Amino acid sequence: MVTFSLYSGLDLDGALMKPTMNFLQKLSADPTHPSLKIKTLSNAVDKRVRTGRINDQFRAVLFEIRDGDVHHFVLVDVDSHDEGNAKAERLDPARLRLDVNPINGITTLINEGPAEEPGVGAASGATDSKAKAEAAAEAAHALAAEQAKAIAEEKGVRAELATKQSPPPREALSGLTPELLWEELGIDPALTKQVLALESERELDALLAQRPKWEHEAVLALVAGYSVEETRESLGLRRVTEKEAAAPEDARLLAGLRQAAAEMEFAYVDDVETDSLRSVIESGDFKQWRTYIHPEQRRMAEASYKGSARVFGGAGTGKTVVAVHRANNLATGQIAGAGARILLTTFTKGLAQGLKSQLNALNPAFPEAPDPGEAGVWVDNIDAVVRKVVSLGSPEEVEEATLRVLGVSSPRVRPYTDLAARQIWEGALESTDATMPGEIANEAFLQAEYETVVLANGITTQAEYLKVARSGRGTPLNRKQRKQVWAVLESLQQTQAIDGQLFWPTMSAVGAEILNVRYERGGGSLFDHVVVDEAQDFNAGHWRFLRACVAEGPNDIFIAEDSHQRIYGNPLTLSHFGISTRGRASRRLTLNYRTTKENLDYALRILLGGDKEFLDAEGEKDSVVGYRSARSGRAPVILTATSEDEEFAVVAALIHGWLKEAEEAPAEKGRKEVRVGVMCRTRGQLARVVSGLADEGIDAVQTKNAELASHEQVSVMTMHGAKGMEFTHVILMGVGKEIMPLRFQLKNLSEEDARAALQRERSLLYVAASRARDVLVITTVGDRSELLPES
Length: 791
Known about the structure:
InterPro entries: DNA_helicase_UvrD-like_C (IPR014017), DNA_helicase_UvrD/REP (IPR000212), P-loop_NTPase (IPR027417), UvrD-like_ATP-bd (IPR014016). The chain is an alpha/beta fold and 791 residues long. The protein is built from 28 helices and 25 strands.
């Protein structure tokens, strides 16, 4: 049997994809075929290295491994036959070898070429020295700063770099010796010594850039505060046994390629005829390979649980990746039985479209359910699923459900429009008791009370409301105030029943009761498994509905959440709804795959500026300690203009510069991708921003659709609409003192509700800032927002 591994350093342009695929297919059919011209290099440091003919111009560099019936090839490069080719000179096949780490058994590609640091073997085919890498990193930072300052000075705008010096890595590694990290994890002692000698974390990136990916991430985890055991667990590292160490070398190499941590660098493909190999080749970028998943994420995506489970972590840590992989694993029978009915849901329509797109990329043949409750995966946003269920409910089911939720029955219901819902609330507030304190006689307080107390507990009478525990509600109410509040909320329930129209949270609760009625009358559950992304924004009605969608049991509900990105609603404890994910069923991700260290640091400082704790789905305090990024880049820039005209001029100049830089990038380095996201706090700012940029020659598209934005060079949206998106460059416009937070939203709020509102504003700013992959710029006219950290 012929199998393959493909190295992450493969660099294939469009012209090479098809011939490389044909080469591998021929190799799979007959490795001895004369047309392949497989050659052994007599001067190679590794006897397994081979070259083969891709076509007249290009050759493959690969390793041949034999272990019993397994005939395995590791493709590490495709380069030109031209001896003057710079790449070929840099990556001499004769100097490459595959090595197995004697401690953890991971297979690694080593390049024994020149210009390497003493004591540390080169990896990943690199030849640049540490000094050159550091110089390049510093140049990138200096260039960014100079560009920003030059443009700002030219336009008369003040520029400020939002930098913060990080401590030397040795402070985090205190007590950890090179010998200990070698014996426990397999980290090269010479590398550890160099890490301990560094003066800044920025130097760390340059040092680790050429190391094996597992070693790179292990050091980053330790520097971020992980213990040795936590680092081992996150990467799935294990110790080699005596029996394994005594096995033939080819067997050890093959086993090392199958380790979870090795899959960060080597894509193992069992069958060349499957679509999985084609996807690797055609992607041209291993990092985008559709089946790649980090070992820590893989465990969550593949594990079987006795009940519900949860993955949580900061923006860009791969929670959505886990959710999509888990839905696919459930659908294909890898976790439970085949033919399961699965719901994959999230908060908004745009996010749901993104989930479906990712699921299609992961598995183009995934079984899509034709309707909710049928075999396969149903992908939609939560409110759309609720509306579908309610619309299909019989009049008898709807009457019973509305009676249970509102205390008054209604045979048919539909949701209020946003405008109608606001008018209903305005009318309710006008009828409040004149003696009610202002801190509770406002929509923010009453709406939260309705959702988190009344709907969450299924309350329909004053007696029930007077005795219910108002857990998590910071503003206390005496008995008189409870009666006053109930009078308002009861009138809202009656109005909904009379109108036959519901607030969306009420709609979800009614949907839950329709499913409960059906179940009580002998019907089954709607789904076998539910997977939820962006769970932190779901309200009490949503959780009642999701709990009713699936019976309690193995792998019933899987949740991906980040309490720091809660920009709607209020914290809820899911055990209240019969969903528990405590202990080993709850795992935290900390490695950010999207944002640079500099941008991540700034985004996290936005969160840390508040005085209110973030609570997760288990009601526990959620911390940002330990979050880290695998990439370094440009420092965020804050631009302060004296007028909107100045602001538009400098923003347009920046965008023009980024687009020009991409267009002028050397052809041999490939076209640099630039996708700019311009974000505002309010909808009212959008048209002004699009128009202002147009006046400066920037063609920007207003959207809240992630799929559409991914194909545009410049997209404009609200910060709320940016949820789930990613851009190479992000500009947060108009982040002024009066815009964030919106002052009118804080009027008449109690101290606790005002703190909660400010926390949501911090979360919103954090969400927006963390959309930036490479460059983050924040602009303001006049005084900037108090939510922005000091530089």
